[in-house]
Structures are given as structure tokens and as C-alpha cells.
Amino acid sequence: MEARMNLMANPVAAKILKYLHSAGKEIKGSTLPVATQHLVTLRASQINGCAVCTDMHSKDAAHAGDSATRINLVAAWREAPQFSDAERAALELTEQATRIADAAGGVTEEAWLDAAKHYDEDQLAALVCLIAFINTANRLNVAVQQPVGDYQPGQFG
């Protein structure tokens, strides 16, 4: 399958993506734990049905040393004991923020306060920005039907 559009070859999209890439670098460089970043991006990508990002973030998590068991269980994290309380809070926030249209009122106060117990203000800011960032990336890739499967860890810096 070929993408409907090459976003990097389109001058308008390329300019916008340059800024998104810069935002992504800032999030990656934050104090939000790297393992949490991988779990969050993987879970949002699963929810959004973004095969490209699911492939990318599962490979990145494995490359960073996360176990195959944890990666495979992200979709069922509530039932899996392999995740810390902090990771669970981040995954709950991710699910609620990704599924805003499915829940009147968006993110619950309970989910927010639980995440705030585990992450300082800078980490929480990075987490919220990461959730927004990955949802944007998912929507771009799904819209253009970006081909999946050939991603190599670290490919995009």
C-alpha cells in the first residue's frame, strides 16, 4: 500500500511537521520516564488504530529494553501486574485524553489527581503534551494511510 500523500514532500505539511518534530524532541528530553513515554505512545496508537505508530513505538520500547511481555500487555494493562502504579496512572490519563469524545467531561478529576500523585508538574506537563502529540501523529498517519512495517528504532532521531 502506498500513502495517499507524502507529507514530507508537501511544502505546507513539511513546515508543520518540522514544528511537530521539534515538539517531540522537547518531550523526549523531558524528565518523564522513557519507559512511560513508550507505554503512552503505544497505548494511544493502539486505541487510534494507527498501525505505523503501534509498530514504531513497540519497536522503540523493545529497543529501549522494555520486555516483550510488557509491550504485548499494554492493551490489557488493567489486568496485567507488570505495570507500576505510576505507569497505570499515565495509561489511564492517556486513555481518557485519547477518548475524549467517548466520555462527557473528558478526563476525570480522579484520573488527573492520580497522575499528579506520581509525576511532578514538569513531568505531568510533558505527559499531557505527549498524549496530545501522539494523537496528532496517529491522526496524520491514519488519514494518509502511511505504510507500516519497515520502521527501525531510532530512524527519526
Automatic annotation (TrEMBL):
Pfam families: CMD (PF02627). Coiled coil: none annotated. Residues 24-95 form the Carboxymuconolactone decarboxylase-like domain. It comes from the Bacteria. PANTHER family: 4-CARBOXYMUCONOLACTONE DECARBOXYLASE FAMILY PROTEIN (AFU_ORTHOLOGUE AFUA_6G11590), BLL7811 PROTEIN. This is Carboxymuconolactone decarboxylase family protein.
